[in-house]
């Protein structure tokens, strides 16, 4: 008797499942047609948004929420909209079997005010990723809630956006960046210009003095602590109660302006009046670091003297190279 009781329920469940499958197929056909009519991007309103994001869906979707009307003054929306159009056109190149498993869509505020209100959206643009709710592409954890696309890591770079969205599509989006004609033209003009002035420029580029100055300049900048300042993000100068502070306290800190000061000091060590400059530089260095920073340790004094002697040795080696 129990078996006879459950037979009508099973029959009703099968009929309902078949009807639901037919409805899902009909919705997918409608969405496919809408995508084909608009270069791969479905233009949504409140009703079609509910169809696209139905809980019975066996497809995934990327939906862009925008406010393109000029009165809203949404410049990011105007930047993002052509990017989605480009992605939609690229997605159209995928074969139909896989293309129809994922849709790209856009809904504007004027066409979907109820949808914006229902989702609690108070700003635009927003891109949401809806995973498949049923079928083999549905999440293993069963979560079918929309995922928010993060613009912090990609900005409005089409290539980076495509790379991230491809993680949610059946196959990677076949996007190819268009040729950078501005770069190509600039490169050609530069080559032609260089060829025209090569006979005047080559003697200068082939001169050992040119490369000596470049090499020494690089050495001076790096010796001054340029990489330390860039890596640590140190400020150019620091503000103080009595004005700008140009010398950082201690040996573990350095301001940007100190790169120029140390570079200038090292350059002075290469001058013809080297002995006089060396003594002057050492005294200046001692005054700054000993008096203002209260460095009284004999070990620290010896360390500074050793550093300056090393610079003096580098100076003599540079003289040999230039000769």
Automatic annotation (TrEMBL):
Query: Which UniProt keywords are present, listed alphabetically?
Result: Endoplasmic reticulum, Membrane, Signal, Transmembrane, Transmembrane helix
Q: How does it sit in the membrane?
A: Multi-pass membrane protein
Instruction: Give the residue range of the signal peptide.
Output: 1-17
Ranges that cross the membrane: 181-202, 209-229
One matching Pfam family = OST3_OST6
Where located?
Answer: Endoplasmic reticulum membrane
- What is the protein's name according to its record? Uncharacterized protein
Q: Which organism is it from?
A: Clathrus columnatus
């Amino acid at each position: 008797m129990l078996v006879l009781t459950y037979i009508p329920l099973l029959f009703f469940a099968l009929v309902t499942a078949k009807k639901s499958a037919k409805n899902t197929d009909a919705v997918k056909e409608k969405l496919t047609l809408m995508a084909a009519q608009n270069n791969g991007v479905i233009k949504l309103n409140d009703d079609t948004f509910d169809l696209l994001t139905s809980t019975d869906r066996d497809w995934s979707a990327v939906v862009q929420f925008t406010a393109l009307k000029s009165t809203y003054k949404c410049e990011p929306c105007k930047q993002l909209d052509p990017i989605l159009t480009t992605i939609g056109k690229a997605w159209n190149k995928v074969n139909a079997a896989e293309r129809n498993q994922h849709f790209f869509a856009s809904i504007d505020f004027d066409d979907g005010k109820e949808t914006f209100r229902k989702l609690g959206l108070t700003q635009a643009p927003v891109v949401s990723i809806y995973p498949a709710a049923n079928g083999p592409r549905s999440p293993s954890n069963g979560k079918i809630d929309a995922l928010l696309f993060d613009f912090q890591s990609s900005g409005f770079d089409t290539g980076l956006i495509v790379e991230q969205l491809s993680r949610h599509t059946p196959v990677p989006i076949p996007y190819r960046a268009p040729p950078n004609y501005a770069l190509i033209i600039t490169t050609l003009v530069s080559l032609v210009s260089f060829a025209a002035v090569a006979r005047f420029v080559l003697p200068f580029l082939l001169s050992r003095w040119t490369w000596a100055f470049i090499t020494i300049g690089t050495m001076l900048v790096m010796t001054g602590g340029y990489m330390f300042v860039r890596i640590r993000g140190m400020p150019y100068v620091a503000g103080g109660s009595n004005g700008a502070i140009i010398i950082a306290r201690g040996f573990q800190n350095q301001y940007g302006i100190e790169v120029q000061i140390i570079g200038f000091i090292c350059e002075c060590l290469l001058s013809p009046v080297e002995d006089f400059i060396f003594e002057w530089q050492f005294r200046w260095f001692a005054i700054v670091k000993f008096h203002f920073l209260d460095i009284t340790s004999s070990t620290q004094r010896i360390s500074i003297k050793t550093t300056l002697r090393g610079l003096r040795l580098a100076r003599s080696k540079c003289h040999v190279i230039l000769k």
